Every structure is written in C-alpha cells, then in structure tokens.
Recover the amino acids of this structure.
C-alpha cells in the first residue's frame, strides 16, 4: 500500500473512532422498573420488526389482502382473510384465536417478507386469565403464503407472558405499540407494562401518589407513546415514551398522541382527565452544554 493510501485509511479510521466515542449513552428512567418475562412456549419467533420509514424491497405479497378480527364472545377472537391476489378475489381463510378468560385487546406487528411468504406477530391480551383477575399476553405467529390464486393463512400460538396487571370480567384493557415495544394497561391497574417485542421482557410503568389507575394508551406513526392515568374529575398524570422505549416526559393531566389511521375519542379514552396548563411544559433546553463566553452568547 502506498504512503498516500496508508495516510488516507488512518485518517478515515480516526474519524470513525471519534464518531463512535461521541455517541451519547442511553439514560435510565425511574419511571420504568425492568423485570424478566416468563416464556411458557419458547422465545422470540421473528427477527426485529421493520423500523418505521424503512421501505420493503417491493410490494409485500399480501398488499391487496386484509385480515379482520371480531371479538366472538369473551372467549374467542375470530379472523377472516379477504381481498385479492393477481388472479382471484374474495375471502380465503378463517379461524379462531382462544379460548381466553376474556379477550381484551389485539394488535399486529410489522411484517417480515420472504419470497411469497409474509410473517407477522399477533398480540392478544387476555384480561381475565382462567376466568379470574390475572392478565396474560398471548403471542401468535401469523403466516400468509400468497400465490396467484390463493392465500393460505396459519396463526400459531408461540408464547404466553403473564403480566403484573389487575384484570377481571368487566375490566377495560388498553394497548398500543411501536416497532420495538408493546404498552399495556387496564383500568383496574395502578401501573402499566412495557413489553419488549424481542425477547418479551417486561417493565412496569408509572406510579402516582395518590394512586391513579390507567385510563388510556395512545401511539403515533413515529413511535411515540403516551400512557395516561386518572379519570374525569381528578388531575391525572401521564408518561410519554420515545421510539426506543425510553421515557421522554411525564407530568400532570392527560395527554395523547394521534396517528394517521385511527382517531382517538372520549369513547376510547375512558373519560380521562384533561391536560395540565401547557405553559408549564413550554421549556426549551439545549441538548449539549453551551460553552461560556462563546461568541454570540
């Protein structure tokens, strides 16, 4: 290697090392207490979900197909796959998830594509496990094999995770998610739970004095999530989380984020309390220390 090339490689290496050293470390937040989930049926079944804004190499094979879910009594969730392939249209497959003590909430993950096969997770919260007051997260693997004329769908249970929440036959369950985490709570629980999709470890969220129950959980397309506590007639409180699952804000009152596909309304917010005076939140802080005596300051 020439002397010039050697100098160039050394310079690039130095720049890369300086960049790595300059990366900020992740901060811990007292709003979350980590615990390890118990996996009754194995460990993670999918690669990490696709990050928001990262396009697939082409249209997914199931782009023109959709799955509907119906709460079929408290014990089951029924599903039907409909839409069209390149040569046919209609409804192709169906089935049931369960039985549950009481099916409280359901959400899908982002898809993973391999050839004509599309795989994703389906998460269901049983908020009356065994007919009692326990809460359990059920993790299913949903696989669609799409041909020019048909979609063969299978949904298989892969994990169950007990959650430290209070349930019951008449409980209201809240759930939202971003690419890496699920956020789950019930209106009888004074804490919510954050579940990491990879590995299914759990962490408790919240805690107010005096105690307040969970009243809503919302998420937006950028991966921000808010968990609200309290109800109408009290000041309430909230925690906000970023795309990486870390807490970014907390305060009094209730605040929600909104996405581009599903509205929020009083119907699905359980009449939670209003926001605190926003003036107390209007503060700008520098992300890096400002050098004293620098020009312009």
């Amino acid at each position: 290697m020439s002397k010039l090339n050697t100098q160039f490689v050394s310079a690039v290496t130095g720049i890369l090392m300086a960049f790595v050293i300059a990366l900020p470390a992740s901060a811990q937040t007292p709003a979350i207490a980590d615990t390890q989930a118990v996996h009754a049926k194995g460990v993670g079944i999918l690669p990490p979900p696709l990050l928001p804004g990262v396009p697939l190499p082409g249209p997914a094979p199931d782009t023109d197909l959709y799955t509907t879910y119906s709460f079929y009594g408290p014990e089951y969730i029924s599903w039907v796959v409909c839409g069209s392939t390149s040569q046919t249209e209609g409804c192709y497959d169906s089935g049931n998830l369960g039985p549950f003590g009481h099916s409280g909430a359901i959400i899908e993950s982002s898809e993973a594509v391999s050839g004509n096969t599309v795989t994703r997770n389906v998460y269901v919260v049983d908020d009356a496990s065994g007919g009692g007051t326990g809460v359990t997260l059920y993790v299913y693997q949903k696989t669609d094999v799409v041909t020019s004329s048909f979609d063969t769908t299978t949904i298989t249970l892969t994990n169950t995770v007990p959650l430290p929440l209070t349930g019951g036959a008449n409980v209201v369950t809240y759930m939202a998610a971003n690419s890496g985490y699920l956020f789950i709570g019930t209106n009888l629980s004074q804490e919510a739970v954050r579940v990491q999709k990879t590995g299914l470890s759990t962490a408790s969220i919240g805690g107010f004095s005096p105690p307040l129950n969970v009243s809503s959980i919302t998420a937006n397309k950028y991966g921000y999530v808010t968990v609200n506590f309290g109800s109408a007639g009290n000041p309430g409180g909230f925690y906000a989380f970023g795309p990486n699952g870390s807490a970014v804000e907390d305060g009094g009152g209730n605040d929600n984020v909104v996405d581009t596909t599903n509205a929020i309304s009083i119907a699905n917010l359980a009449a939670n309390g209003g926001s605190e005076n926003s003036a107390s939140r209007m503060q700008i802080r520098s992300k890096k220390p400002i050098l004293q005596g620098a020009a312009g300051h």
About this structure: The longest strand covers residues 117-129. The CA atoms of residues 155 and 265 lie 31 Å apart.
